[in-house]
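okkk here we go again. third time trying to get the flavin-adenine dinucleotide bound version out, last two times i messed up the smiles copy paste (missing a bracket lol). double checked this time i swear
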Amino acid sequence: MPHFDLCVIGSGSGNSLLDERFNHLKVALVDAGVQGHFGGTCLNVGCIPTKMFVRPADLAYAHVEAERLGVRLAPGSADWPKIRDRVFGRIDAISSAGRDWRIRNEHITLLEGESRFVDERTLGVAGGKITADRYVLAAGSRPHALEVPGADQVTVHTSDTIMRLDTLPRTMVIIGGGFIAAEFAHVFASFGVKVTIVNRSNALLRQEDEEVSQRFTRLMSKRIPVRLGQHLTRLEPDEGGVLVVASDAEAIEYEYGAEVVLNATGRIPNSDRLNLSATGVEVTEGGYVKVDEYQRTTADGIFALGDVCSPWQLKHVANHETRVVQHNLLHPDDLIPANHDAIPHAVFSHPQVAAVGATEQQLREQGRDYVKAVQDYGSVAYGWAMEDRDGFCKLLACPHTGKLLGAHLIGEQASTLIQPLIQAMSTGLTAREMARGQYWIHPALTEVVENALLSLPLEGYEREPDPVDE
Ligand SMILES: Cc1cc2nc3c(=O)[nH]c(=O)nc-3n(C[C@H](O)[C@H](O)[C@H](O)COP(=O)(O)OP(=O)(O)OC[C@H]3O[C@@H](n4cnc5c(N)ncnc54)[C@H](O)[C@@H]3O)c2cc1C
Ligand SMILES: NC(=O)c1ccc[n+]([C@@H]2O[C@H](COP(=O)([O-])OP(=O)(O)OC[C@H]3O[C@@H](n4cnc5c(N)ncnc54)[C@H](O)[C@@H]3O)[C@@H](O)[C@H]2O)c1
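finally!!
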């Protein structure tokens, strides 16, 4: 039975872990593949391809905003095969080059196939068994399967398959109202598909701050039919596609026919694929591998990182945890903890949404003192240029320390505008220091952040006259 110093399960963040500092070790990299591809979710079916579809979608949708500014553009139409092939022409090549490179690495053995633990140090993979002194579980997550009658009789797409459709459908039902539903609704609606969202909860992006979730739900409802408070009850084959049947709180049933159905009802960790009961590795009720602050599982010598143990399910969190595990594998006597404070996220829909820290509803539930400011994009010069009516920056701060507790943006470039606020929260900068300790370029859109900081009703905090107001 081949023995290794280290075995890493998962070729997403797990593959990035294996840099030149591990060249002195005999390493096994074990991977089952995502849709037959090497390199994990982010590269093949996640962050990267989705954003490569969002960019052309933004362009196709630009005619709506252009109209407000007196520019008449034709409504966008999408050359789907060209867009799809551009995206995967790049990505598939990166995936296969990464795989080839790993095969050529002398100290790394790539073992491809589903793996399961036999005992704490033995892993069954590709019809054989290996042993290793230490393991890293980087097995990620997968789409939550729909468990309703008829789900096995129709084709149900997930984010794993929807981006490789042969042709653009005329109609699509998206089930769910979270990140994936929001992003793909924008992509396919912009490309001319008649999209309907059916969501169980009463708002889209309901994990966001309540004002952001309400605004996003209103704006998306103006673009496409959004059916809220309805849960899926069954799926039926239908002429030319699928009949989606959902019911509301009064058990009234609604039917939606579509050529294509996209299941966007969440992702579950892949811990159940590893036979962890053969090891001492414990999992939470939600199936996440339990880790301590050093990313160590409950079994000696087994670390975990990324979606298999992180309920945030975000690539920048997986990347951070990868750096922590790298260090801790290399320096067992000088461990460093993971930092899970001020984790931001962004939803690349239209409008974009970005957030860091607590929502207002969380602060209320926690009974914390807070002050808030909501600054409309339309109140600053660049917002005038954009004729923006919908975007805002909402800040929540501690009235005692002047530090930010949460920041929430909805609108153009929210995913970029939020970065200085993430920095302030990560470094403990007060709102006052942040607003007045630096120049803000005039008349850039960042002035919406500056003005939101200045609008926070913090004691001893003088709001200076705004040149735009004069
Ligand atoms: C559509 C979509 C869009 C996203 N967009 C963003 C975004 O914009 N920003 C962001 O931060 N995050 C985004 N995410 C989330 C992000 O992709 C994940 O958080 C991240 O990729 C997780 O990385 P990982 O290394 O934990 O797992 P993965 O990259 O999923 O790697 C896990 C690997 O383990 C393998 N594996 C699983 N079980 C076994 C087994 N038993 N044996 C062998 N191998 C196994 C899998 O085949 C896979 O290759 C998105 C996700 C999706 C689905
Ligand atoms: N931009 C990003 O960072 C990005 C983009 C895509 C995905 N992701 C990651 O992937 C994860 C999964 O995304 P997701 O959107 O699938 O999950 P999610 O948890 O964000 O949303 C799931 C949605 O499905 C709804 N739902 C669940 N069961 C339902 C049912 N039976 N009928 C109708 N609606 C139902 C829920 O109400 C919720 O709105 C996210 O948690 C996120 O971390 C991140």
